[in-house]
Design a protein that fits this description.
The chain is mostly helical and about 260 residues long. The chain has one domain (about 1-255). Helices cover about 75% and strands about 0% of the residues. The longest helix is centred in the middle third of the chain and has 28 residues, at about 105-130. The relative contact order is 0.14.
């Protein structure tokens, strides 16, 4: 059993290294993931921020959680793209003809998504600091924020894996991310839900982004999170487990 675990982690580290090399060889990928959320943050803070009433004195503090979720939703699209390319070029079959743990091929892409998204998040937070973002959160609150963002990344990454493994075209495999990127707009990420029409407000208050945004916002401002954190965790874990199940099924059909 111990030897099997050793081989699994060794194989997974090789697959992770392979996927990370692809990322660093095409840095424009990470730049693209960062540029759009940063541009949105600049636009909303310096153009629309003065006209949006949020009840807070610092709009960038209010806006940042939603921007981070948008960045993650944008970043996971590349997982679908890379998985589709591996499937289309027969690379998966080549790996499966080797004496390696089969699941590590898929996990390599998933962990690469987590690492690359963490890098993007750090870059965006640094830009937000230059724009005036300030947080009174302690170490534990920051760790809680990091944990929620990683869970959210894993949840969306497994959705991306489904798209990449089942997509018929490259465009179809990547298109799944568009609704996810724009979902924060219909939430409390940019404006309080109280200002929305009834039907839109009901949807905004009962979709996952709002609870996740509100939790992160409360943690960063060192405010009580209440029950929102449990709702956010339930959404993240629920989506992740369901998406993982279907992604593994799709993967097993390919490698069977």
């Amino acid at each position: 059993m111990g030897e099997a675990k050793t081989y699994f982690f060794r194989d997974m580290s090789v697959m992770l290294g392979r996927s990370m090399r692809h990322i660093f060889r095409s840095m424009d990928t990470m730049l693209t993931v960062c540029i759009t959320p940063i541009a949105m943050m600049l636009l909303f803070v310096y153009v629309f921020g003065g006209a949006i009433e949020t009840g807070t004195g610092n709009y960038v503090n209010y806006l940042l959680p939603g921007i981070l979720l948008m960045a993650i939703a944008s970043g996971v699209a590349y997982v679908a793209y890379r998985l589709f390319i591996d499937k289309q070029r027969g690379i998966m079959e080549r790996f499966h003809s080797m004496p390696i743990a089969r699941s590590t091929v898929l996990w390599g892409h998933v962990l690469t998504s987590v690492v690359s998204n963490v890098i993007s998040i750090v870059v965006i937070i640094l830009v937000a600091l230059l724009m005036g973002f300030r947080s009174s959160a302690g170490v534990l609150s920051w760790l809680a924020v990091a944990g929620i963002l990683v869970l959210f990344t894993l949840a969306l990454t497994w959705i991306a894996a489904i798209a990449g493994l089942t997509g018929k075209t490259m465009e179809g495999a990547s298109a799944f991310s568009y609704p996810l990127i724009f979902l924060p707009f219909i939430s409390s990420a940019f404006v309080p839900t109280d200002s929305m029409p009834l039907i839109v407000r009901v949807f905004a208050e009962n979709q996952p982004v709002t609870s996740i945004v509100e939790t992160i916002r409360s943690l960063l401002s060192n405010q009580p999170v209440g029950t929102e954190i449990w709702v956010a965790l339930a959404w993240c874990l629920g989506i992740m487990l369901v998406a993982y199940f279907f992604a593994v099924r799709a993967y097993n059909r390919i490698v069977a």
